[in-house]
Amino acid sequence: MASNSGRRLNIDNINPHVRAAKYAVRGELAVKSEEYRAALQNGATDLPFKQVISANIGNPQQLDQKPITFIRQVLSILENPALLEKGDVLVNHLGYKPDVLERAKKLLAAVGSVGAYSPSNGAPAIRQSIAEFLERRDGFPANPADIYMSAGASSGVNTLLHIICADEKSGVLVPIPQYPLYTASLSVLNATCVPYYLDEQKNWGTDLATIRAAHEKAKAEGVDVRAIVIINPGNPTGASLPEEDIRAVIEFARQERLVILADEVYQTNVFIGEFISFKRMLRQMQKEQPGTYDNIELASLHSVSKGMIGECGHRGGYFELVGFDPLVQAEIYKFVSIMLCAPVIGQCLVELMVNPPKPGEPSYDLYIQEYNAIFNGLHERATALHKAFEQMEGVECGVPQGSMYLFPTIKLPPKAAKAAAAEGRTPDEFYCLRMLEATGVCVVPGSGFGQKEGTLHFRTTFLAPGTEWVGSIVKFHKEFMDKYR
Amino acid sequence: MASNSGRRLNIDNINPHVRAAKYAVRGELAVKSEEYRAALQNGATDLPFKQVISANIGNPQQLDQKPITFIRQVLSILENPALLEKGDVLVNHLGYKPDVLERAKKLLAAVGSVGAYSPSNGAPAIRQSIAEFLERRDGFPANPADIYMSAGASSGVNTLLHIICADEKSGVLVPIPQYPLYTASLSVLNATCVPYYLDEQKNWGTDLATIRAAHEKAKAEGVDVRAIVIINPGNPTGASLPEEDIRAVIEFARQERLVILADEVYQTNVFIGEFISFKRMLRQMQKEQPGTYDNIELASLHSVSKGMIGECGHRGGYFELVGFDPLVQAEIYKFVSIMLCAPVIGQCLVELMVNPPKPGEPSYDLYIQEYNAIFNGLHERATALHKAFEQMEGVECGVPQGSMYLFPTIKLPPKAAKAAAAEGRTPDEFYCLRMLEATGVCVVPGSGFGQKEGTLHFRTTFLAPGTEWVGSIVKFHKEFMDKYR
Questions:
Q1: CB contact under 8 A, A162 and B188
Q2: Domains of chain B with CATH codes
Q3: How far apart are CA A69 and CA B73, in angstroms?
Q4: What is the complex's ipTM, to 2 decimals?
Q5: How far is the C-alpha of B90 from the C-alpha of B73, rounded, in Å?
Q6: pLDDT digit string, tens, across residues A356-365
Q7: DSSP code string of B335-372
Q8: A281-297, pLDDT tens digit by residue?
Q9: Whole-angstrom distance between the N-terminal and C-terminal Cα of chain A?
Q10: What stretches pass through the bilayer (chains A, B) (predicted)?
């Protein structure tokens, strides 16, 4: 039906800022892949593949990853507290350890019922437990009053950008390539994205000269740059920033008076190097040079969706604020109040993530065994995929460093670019679409994350089990190159 | 610390639209009541009450309401599917009926894992089940492709207002008194709220002449009025609209080309009258006069937070679109994609709400017994509270009709208004604050929902058990009136 059909709303009169937003992770290719999946489920036999591999999104439990037993046992009791009346059955017949029951009791005491709203910023006892985790992790105190529970990190980013951006001149420095949540949210808010490129030659690390140049250019154009987003470890790239890079960003934020948004959701997905939190580094610098860094405002985000937990569907997360004005925090509280509170079972899941079984506790052995198996499995799959990329003509990819993704460069022949243009697509979109049609593997074109002019990439997760799908990509690539060379 | 302390963000430079938003349901009084609650938990003995009653928000499970057994048993299995391997233990030792296990299997087949992201608009099989519920409820077909799962109805409202409002001239007709989600969201979006008053003399029903006048006035002021919000049954008032009022609103929407947003989250909380959905009425009118109502766009919202389910903490809900342009729906899909998906366990809860055990199924008897007990308990509490209001000087309140609230008028002496003004408060705020301090009962001043100039109200839920708290309100009111008369 035509868009100007007499309806009140049409594509030309709805919110133009929503229309301008782009979100390729769940865009055309993802929709098409779901159609293939439905067709296969309905018995389609005319497709050249037997399964769809959703490598477009970090969704571990959709693929192969099993949830961690301790976590799900506790959650099952939270959903049905009547089970606690049959503790002996749980322990003797269902394999629940006593610490599972204890934790469930503690969390129920903290939230009352998972069916009740919590305070808008999250259940106080859970925020207390997060603060203790942060203290253990960083070696510096954390205050539960500065912690806000959110429905995944995405909702936390949405909150923070809503507060920071006052009008269309408000700018936020965003790394490119990036997770498109940032650009999409800034579009919706009608604020200004100030892109800065990561350095592919240095494992996609931050390059301060590049950041500074992007900042200067934006300022010269009249943009009121207010904040800088750092994704560490990186998405889509997996790189963990070394201490000197973090220090440099904090120093830059001080000089230029920028709020730091540290997206640290991949903090446990680290194969190479070490995760260092911005909070720890900031506190360290404040200690080294008293007074110098007191005015820095930092928001750091975490989530249950990634790491070895991988519980995306539960929409759990939090952010911690450092150095924010109390009056601004009151506005953040009011803003999150409008949506009432983060899902309470997701809040409990955050508590289980930050406070897992300790050595010597009954559930510890199984927990650590499952945790390590997931970690090692991810590393192995990343390595196998990387190895496959090394065989592929015109494909270059750094050694897997962490997160859940690889982001190879692809060099495609001019004939492919021409064929893409004929379809009104960018060459990377064209390549990824052909890959989906040939193999059932759904990846995201680099243009969905941003890439330097003249370069092409795609992002794939390394979550899918088995090697068959990797082989199918290698085969597809060869045929594609042969066709368009 | 002062607001202009050298920080980048202060109360004067953050997003002014967030700052302008008001959300009294979780405002100053709610925060103060939580402080009292914490003080009591820490053993405070200097307060004139022993417990805090949060009558400010419809949060049944925070107070007394037990979750429905069938629902929570299924959810416990969804959280820990390994329990299905011990089906005999569940049935023989834990009292799970076979239909609980069956439903859990069905939902697990629908979502894979509750820890995995679903498609952005919700799991297809759950949307199918909702469509079947809507067909049973309304007697007209529903299409799963037009159903969008949301994190409670609030997030659905947020989505729809984001699409509808293009700029600051975009206006939405909102009933007064109203649930402040609407005014707050419109503030954040910097769009225009066009208030229309409900008719207190007619049980807070819609009065078309009033709506029309508000609309004309807004149009004359250059507002591009695009939609009308109807809360049916009403919040804070509980009234169910009769068929003729719904027809009148639909006819008005046709004449004035307005999208209808039907907030129907209290559809089962009806003591007097009958719930009639806008969808049913619209389809009926389309059938009666073919062609006339084809261009009406309707979005109707529902939630697991209210009704006899009362599972607010799970943040589950959906909205159904009727008559929307496919291109506009594609933008809605993209918008919800940015936040990935509604909590998957909450999606499953929606399915359990719309498709409860049927007569003859093993879980039915207990289900219907629990359901009716909650319904009757709410009705009894509402009646008891209403009776108390009848005894109170200067308090007037219609017979309870539904939802979870009463919204009495209060007439306060001039001396009270003067004392309020001296504190920089409205008289109703002043009254509610004194009530909280004297009784520990937290209600919301009428000004938080909007009220006609010169009238005063407060909103209270009737969810709290027992009669002591009601007695304490009566006693407080007498003392307040004696003091300020």
A1: yes
A2: 16-64+370-484 (3.90.1150.10), 117-354 (3.40.640.10)
A3: 18
A4: 0.94
A5: 10
A6: 999 999 999 9
A7: HHHHT--S-HHHHHHHHHHHSPPPTTSTTHHHHHHHHH
A8: 999 999 999 999 999 99
A9: 41
A10: none
